[in-house]
């Protein structure tokens, strides 16, 4: 069981680290889309109807696919008022409880995301905007990001349990 946990953590952490490093450049994609929107409105006096929605789609990918990287690095928001003074084991106990809640939340979110993606594919769902893009691509990215976040949360739980037990992974 120990070898499986060690292997799982290693693989998930490596994949999410690489995805996170790639998604860091998603911010430049988002800026390019919004810059084009500004330039087209100012210079050509023709608003690009697709830019705002495409920027939202890019932000979904940036946030959801890059989120596991943030959790992995421990750069998520914590209430450091008490947390900073706790021992490593006490932090692991609290983190393991909160990660369990996160896993439940992500499971519910993934279930809803899969249902929504199936609906979008079956009924060829389109956005209500003037551009009217299909919704399934962004919903697939959303489900992928939630899945990667769920895998990273399980990895964090395994690391917390190892810390509580005094085992090094």
Q: What layout of secondary structure does this protein have?
A:
Layout: H1 2-23, H2 26-43, H3 49-73, H4 80-83, H5 88-122, H6 136-165
List the main descriptive attributes of the protein structure presented here.
169 residues; mainly alpha; 0% strand; elongated
String of helices and strands: HHHHHH
Radius of gyration: 20 Å
Mean pLDDT: 93
Strand content: under 5%
The separation of the N and C termini measures 12 Å
Molecular shape:
elongated
Strand tally: 0
Poorly predicted sequence stretches spanning 5 or more consecutive residues: none
The profile of the biggest β sheet is: none
Alpha-beta content class? mainly alpha
Helix content bin: over 70%
Indicate how many domains the architecture comprises. 1
How would you characterize this protein structure?
It is a multi-pass membrane protein. It comes from Sneathiella chinensis. The chain crosses the membrane at residues 22-44, 50-71, 92-114, 134-155. Its main location: membrane. Belongs to the TRAP transporter small permease family. This protein has helices at residues 2-23, 26-43, 49-73, 80-83, 88-122, 136-165. The chain is built from six helices and no strands. The model has no long low-confidence stretch (mean pLDDT 93). It is 79% helix and 0% strand. By secondary structure, it is mainly alpha-helical. It has one domain (2-165).
